[in-house]
Amino acid sequence: MTATTTRYSEIVDIAAHLFATKGYGATSIQDIADGAGMLKGSLYHHIAGKHGLLEAVIQDVHNSALRRLAVAQERSESPLDTLTWFVTDHVLFNIEHRDGIRVYFEEFRSLDPSNTDRIWEDRLAYDRFVTELVGNAQDAGEADPTLDPHDAAVGILSLMNWVYQWYRPDSGTPPASVATTIAEQATRLITPRRAS
């Protein structure tokens, strides 16, 4: 990795933090330059503009999600075990990349339409995968057959995606514990209820 590439990655991380804490609209190029410890004019040697940084932040998160989706699709465990792995992996990533995740969800509409359309199509593939996992778990007798797979998938995705809103690193709860708990909640959401 070249020094320029490393510096650019650092700038993208700084932009992600500023966009997450101040909002994209309220963050200036000067803010990003100050965060990077450089003059605004020097910053333009590394970036095309603020919008390009927003695209880079969202694309980094998006690419990672697609890579993790591809890994999940190749797993050979039962549907319920795959779902457990997928939710755990997703939650851990979201906790470790809270700034980027916040920007991804909250500043998505600030992208130009050509990018939002492309990313939205990939998001639907993510949603379809979870819906398919629920359906496969039902077929395997692992999940409640009375559930609507899509509705169940929406509930699971909500558990997975919104952790960035409430998790705080200083809470004393380790990320792995949070991920395990949410994965358990996701599976409990779809498994048949047993009479007490």
Could you explain the architecture of this structure?
The longest helix is centred in the middle third of the chain and has 27 residues, at 113-139. It is elongated, with a radius of gyration of 19 Å. The chain has one domain (51-190): Orthogonal Bundle (Tetracycline Repressor, domain 2), CATH 1.10.357.10. It is mostly helical. The chain has helices at 3-22, 29-36, 40-43, 50-74, 79-96, 98-106, 113-139, 149-161, 163-166, 175-190. The mean pLDDT is 91. Helix 5 runs antiparallel to helix 7. The protein has 10 helices and no strands.
Condensed summary:
With 196 residues, the protein is mostly helical. The chain is 73% helix and 0% strand.
The average pLDDT value, as a whole number, equals 91
CATH hierarchy, class:
Mainly Alpha
CATH level-two architecture: Orthogonal Bundle
Specify the helix fraction band. Answer: over 70%
Terminus-to-terminus distance = 58 Å
CATH topology: Tetracycline Repressor, domain 2
- C-alpha-based Rg, rounded: 19 Å
Relative strand content = under 5%
Q: Which of globular, elongated, flat, extended, rod-shaped describes the shape?
A: elongated
- Indicate how many domains the architecture comprises: 1
Output the structural class: mainly alpha
Q: Can you tell me the residue ranges where pLDDT is under 50 for at least 5 consecutive residues?
A: none
Q: Major beta sheet, specifics?
A: none
